[in-house]
Design goal:
This protein is of the alpha/beta class. The strands form 3 sheets. The protein has a 9-stranded mixed sheet with strand order 5-4-1-6-11-8-12-10-9. Strands 2-3 form a two-stranded antiparallel sheet. A hairpin with a 2-residue loop joins β9 and β10. The N and C termini lie far apart (54 Å). The structure holds uridine 5'-triphosphate. Uridine 5'-triphosphate binds next to α5.
Length: 290
């Protein structure tokens, strides 16, 4: 079954990127000239998603404004002959059918996803974490949706993570089915060294069947007092089984400072307008680094 709906949870507090995220949602932090969440919406659209629900909360109205029309700005761009920018700004508001819902309390990613229950209905849906930007030739969300279409099971986007870092992620019990495709039968969130099952971890994208909502209803608060999506996915993996897809793009974690810098530098280097100049600058800078 084709996946046509996606949700983008963007209601977290972003404490790791304070003070920047105090009044600007971290999902709106720019990678060169586009906010992170625009890359994510573009990925969803390129993956065949038609309806998107963004989970927001207080103080995140900049996200809604970004995907809305802006009549005064559009008029000014037209009047000054900036047709290309005008087209780009208008296209932004037409990219997809985007709706919003507020998560009234920050009770975790599982709780944020649960807020999408009515929007999702009985359909399978993709979850694109609002602070994980994945850039590559083939959209990661499409790679996961294709696997859902093939296997009819929940799908997790995975990457191989070095042992010293896996404790920050969700370690998976995987069995390779073919190159880059795994069956997933169990998972441990933020494993202690003796709990690591494998170096494969869930990163930034999942596709889930609607039955995740009845599991979430019975999922108690876990790590950090929050309702964890991984606790619910663990039940799914243990009962029905899930599929892991090693997506081909590069993932940037916009929820931490180093991730933001990596995204900006790498995107800047291939940017149409400033890429060449930025490369020259960076080479010169690097040559003087000690
Ligand atoms: P994170 O755990 O990275 O977000 O959640 P956070 O809570 O903002 O981060 P820190 O630890 O305080 O820096 C991953 C995604 O889930 C969303 C976040 O916005 C982020 O895109 N999220 C998280 C919600 O929508 N609601 C929540 O209650 C928690």
């Amino acid at each position: 079954m084709k996946v046509k709906k996606a949700i983008i949870p963007a209601a977290g507090l972003g404490t790791r990127v304070l003070p920047a995220s105090k009044s600007i949602p971290k999902e709106m932090l720019p990678i060169v000239d586009k906010p992170a969440i625009q890359y994510i919406v573009e990925e969803a659209v390129k993956s065949g998603i038609e309806d998107i629900l963004i989970i927001t909360n207080r103080g995140k109205s900049a996200i809604e404004d970004h995907f809305d029309r802006s009549p005064e700005l559009e008029e000014r761009l037209l009047a000054s002959g900036k047709q290309k920018l005008y087209d780009e700004i208008v296209d932004l508001s037409k990219m997809a059918n985007i709706q919003y819902i507020r998560q009234k309390e920050t009770k975790g990613l599982g709780h944020a996803v649960y807020c999408a229950k009515t929007f999702v209905g009985d359909d399978p849906f993709a979850v694109l974490y609002g602070d994980d930007v994945i850039l590559g030739e083939v959209p990661a969300c499409k790679e996961l949706c294709d696997a859902y279409d093939e296997f009819g099971l929940g799908v997790a986007g995975v990457k191989y993570v070095p042992s010293e870092q896996i404790g920050k992620y969700c370690s998976l019990n995987v069995k390779e089915l073919r190159k880059g495709i795994f069956s997933v039968s169990d998972m441990v969130e933020k494993p202690a060294p003796e709990e690591i099952i494998s170096n494969y971890a869930i990163l930034g994208r999942v596709v889930l069947p609607s039955e995740i909502f009845s599991i979430l209803e019975n999922t108690p608060a876990g790590a950090g007092g929050e309702i964890q999506l991984t606790d619910a996915m663990k039940v799914l993996a243990r009962t029905k089984g899930m599929v892991g897809v090693e997506f081909s793009g590069t993932r940037y974690d916009m929820g931490n400072k180093l991730g933001i810098l990596q995204a900006i530098v790498e995107t800047g280097l291939t940017h149409d307008e400033i890429g060449e100049d930025f490369k020259k600058y960076l080479l010169e800078l690097a040559g003087n680094l000690k």
